[in-house]
Model the fold of this input.
Amino acid sequence: MKKFISLALVSALSATSLAALASCKKADVTLRVASWAEYIDEGEGDNKSMIENFEKWYEEQTGKSIKVEYIELDDNETMYNKITLGETYDLLCPSEYMIMKLQSEDKLEKYPESFFDTSVETNYYAKNVSPFIKSTFEKGKMKDGVSKWSEYAAGYMWGTTGFVVNPEYAEEAKSWNVVKNHGKKATAKNNVRDSYFMGLGMYYENNADKTKTLAEMMNDTSVNTMNAVKELLKAVKTGGVRFETDDAKEAIIAGEYDVSYQWSGDAVYIMDEAEENEIYYDYVIPEFSSNLWFDGWVLMKGAQTDAATMFVNFISKSENAVKNCDYIGYTPCVAGEAMLEYIADKYAPAENAADEDKAAYDLTYFFSDSASSDEKYVITADKEQLHRQLFAQFPDASTKERLVVMEYFEKEVNDRANSMWNDISGESAK
Done:
């Protein structure tokens, strides 16, 4: 009996040791991914994280083990500074303007042609990317005027900027100047790019230039225009508007503000949380224009392309895009059947809703290349959602026509913009 126990103990210890050795065994591939905190499904309970699921899927596909080092960074500028100081990554997830900046400095690799081959079963990005996003990336040009965004970036999340407003002021919020009119009951963004874009909206809404396209007006960084915007933003600041990034969220959720300039994903979060307090907000995009932003996966120079593109493809499975969407509240660049089902279910009217409380919402532009297909993608939604979370996550087709991507500032412009912002920041709210 003693002998049996000893042998059992030895076996148990051996098994434990082997397990420990296995867990410490160096992976065949280490993939360094830099992105933002809480920007990918981290799993909960028995549900594994997106990273863990990818590592398992990668080994099933290749027969090799992989370890993903997911590095969380605070913002685009931190990412850029890390790279400038010599940090290297395989995959980054910067915003549109930083993608343009990194490409202009020859810090990125193009995606291989094989990545876009839809005949390959596991090329989920090429198969599932929204036609709207695909078209936007195909039309978008890097600073060299030749390279396309689509050559260097695979879309991850996208959205708009707009106003989270007390429904009483929803009509007023169709104007950029609503933020100026509400003083201490309003918030704006505490960074130069978002606030400058807001200021351009305020300026050109009243001084539209018919010789310029909307994109040209909303990317105007000329000295005269920047000076005019500076005065508008100074007036906003001295009028008592709170300039913030994340620190006012709880106050907005509690109903302390009537107007708040927000990114669409944060708008969804605020509206969701405010409902718990029985406070209901609308999301309004100004009629003149607004910002179309996106974050995309890019390959750094020297990246492990095979592993990096497999990561992008894995999270671009429609069902995985749904998980990420549900976890972070932002809108994926991926469409697909699972995404459509998720939206239709999430924003469906109550079972006993009257007909007048229901509304058809056409998402064809996002799910189908309407130029080559007669198939329509229309969901039945709670009517209130046409100006609330559904609209924030997926603006309607007419709204997308007035969305503009803000390009990055080159050095001379960036210096002027920062000087302008320092002057504004120095203005004390009265």
In short: The first strand starts at residue 29 and ends at 36.
